[in-house]
Write a structure and sequence with these properties.
With about 230 residues, the chain is of the alpha+beta class. The chain contains 7 helices and 5 strands; from the N terminus they run H-H-E-H-H-E-H-E-E-E-H-H. It has helices at about 10-25, 25-65, 80-90, 95-105, 115-130, 180-190, 200-230, and strands at about 70-80, 110-115, 135-140, 155-160, 165-180. Helix 1 (about 10-25) packs antiparallel against helix 2 and helix 6 (about 180-190) runs antiparallel to helix 7. It is globular, with a radius of gyration of 21 Å. The structure holds ligand 0O2.
Length: about 230
């Protein structure tokens, strides 16, 4: 029976068969060769679980104290093998498991969709303050949006996972954004795949304008919430 490794989302037998077709190597050899890669992906999956648990704890505690959830949704993924290989090639890195681990920050990704902009900074600072992890890099695309209008707060976090025979530090990219920022980013992502767009500059400019409008709505929503909490309305 064909077994799919649900945890890492890779069908190992299928991958081996594909590689065999491409290289003509024996399945046993190939299976041995891809094992370090599938092991690495499993470890990233475990690191994601650690981060998710921390976020759920913060969400539970906050909702008990404030009677609302700061987190709307958490979406996690381990980057697809094809995207990993594409990024390694694009950046000109040597293709090896060691280099993937050393060079890429976003093999493990956690996206936290928040209700309000203030919730993003609250959660990010609570998470960053935890003493079993280290924040390696912060990219604040909310305070400094990308030229195309993209907004999110990105943290590269290093967190330990406890395996049967070792403690290993893994990197996870955590993206925080509001529902509105997520709405924009997912449409932007879809539109990027559209081919033969006649006037790409115009589309880029229109998308940037939409991002600015959405950002104003986020600010207004935050103000309304503050008014309600202060009892002014
Ligand atoms: P996917 O499908 O989400 O994995 P780095 O070398 O990692 O420091 P990089 O990769 O340019 O440099 O990092 P950056 O700028 O922090 O962006 C990484 C991720 O942020 C992207 O991952 C997207 O998820 C998101 N992102 C960044 N810019 C944009 C944008 O303009 N539009 C949208 N929709 N998302 C964006 P991937 O690997 O591109 O894709």
């Amino acid at each position: 029976m064909k077994e799919k490794n649900e945890l890492i989302g890779i069908d190992e037998a299928e991958t081996v068969a594909l590689l065999r077709q491409m290289t003509g190597d024996e399945p046993v050899e190939l299976s041995k060769r891809i094992r370090p890669f599938t092991t690495l992906l499993m470890q990233y999956r475990c690191a994601i679980r650690e981060i998710e648990t921390k976020l759920h704890v913060l969400n539970e505690e906050f909702s008990l104290e404030h009677e609302r959830n700061p987190i709307e949704l958490i979406e996690s993924r381990v980057k697809e093998p094809a995207s990993i290989l594409e990024k390694m090639k694009r950046k000109g890195y040597e293709l090896s498991v060691k280099q993937i681990e050393e060079k890429l920050n976003d093999v493990a990704g956690v996206r936290v969709i928040c209700s309000f902009v203030e919730d993003i900074y609250y959660l990010a600072s609570m998470l960053s303050a935890q003493d079993d992890l280290e924040v390696l890099k912060v990219k604040d695309y909310i305070k400094r949006p990308k030229k195309n209008g993209y907004r999110s707060l990105h943290l590269i976090i290093q967190i330990p996972i406890f395996l049967s025979s070792e403690k290993k530090y893994m990197r996870v990219e955590v993206q925080f954004r509001t529902i509105a920022m997520d709405f924009w980013a997912s449409l932007d992502h879809k539109l990027k795949y559209k081919k033969n767009v006649k006037n790409p500059e115009l589309i880029v400019e229109e998308l940037r304008k939409c991002a600015d409008t959405i950002s104003k709505v986020d600010v207004r929503m935050q103000e309304i919430r503050n008014m309600i909490e202060e009892g002014n309305i």
